[in-house]
Sequence to fold (266 residues):
Amino acid sequence: MFNISVKSGKKKKVGIMEFPERISGKITKAIAAELGDLSEEKLAEIDYGIAAFIANSYKMVFIFILAILLNILNYFLIAIISFGALRTFASGVHAKREWTCLPVSTSIFLGITYLGITLDLNIHIINFVFILCFAAILIYAPADTEERPLVSRKLRKKLKIMSCITILVLYAIALYSLGTKASSIITFAVLVESVLILPVTYRLAGSMYGAGMKISNNGEV
Amino acid sequence: MKRFLKPLMILISTLALFIASTSTTACFWWAIREPKMPESLIKRD
Fold:
């Protein structure tokens, strides 16, 4: 691998390199050989871009195929768009290892969909869930990780505002579609994403909450 | 084959750099795992 990724002590401690990083390393080596004039920094960025794409795209394809086979694609799309819209800004805990990621991602996305299909939530429950989730977003978003710390205060503030706007938009959509399955699915998606930004979830997943904040306060990570 | 290799590598690099740079401002990877971001991509004030 390249200097920047090898430099990290934590990566060495993990020992086993996950397969997206192995593949991306090989592709980046081929790119480096073909386009000789790229700096180590640029190569590390290319390596990261490829690894991020591989690590996530095959899972999404797998889960989409599963949703098609289970004949729940429409509901699944509502779940993934609601969850993803909030997660884009609020972020949240990520799995540490590749082998835990696929079952966890599948359970989360399909779980939200099936819960929404099965349980019809009334307006009181929806209001209660959204108030709790809004409070969680207000206090804990954006929740970064050691792998992708949000160091910039300006960026963190911007993401918090965007997270609050997103949850309000989702609340409006849930109320507008009250009495339908979409309303319940959106509520469960927001609930799950809000749980994923809580410090207690980070502790359970063995991750560190607020890595970027610690870096910007010159603390040790 | 070699004639197409360089443009293909440029294309892959461009897409990879685009993915890497967009990942610095928001969490676009919704599935539950993300690789370690290089120091050069971490935004600071």
